[in-house]
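By way of example, we now present a protein record of this kind:
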Amino acid sequence: MFGISFSELLLVGLVALLVLGPERLPGAARTAGLWIGRLKRSFNAIKSEVEREIGAADIHGSVHNPLPLQRPSAQPPSPTEPPEQPQPPRAP
């Protein structure tokens, strides 16, 4: 994941054993595991929240800006006929 090989992990473990000692090493490992678990859960919660917000924004945008609908015509216009001109609005 981070490009750490087994030999590097073994070296870190040996240094931790020398620094902390055999009595405190299991407790330190347990504490580190708990903190890593909390960080993973926090990042996953943030990730799911962002994904939910992005999905909600996409849905919100598609509801408020729908694609223009085209009306199907009975038959396509012939190339010899000029296209229909829109009628100007009538004044009341």
Notes: The chain has a mean pLDDT of 80.
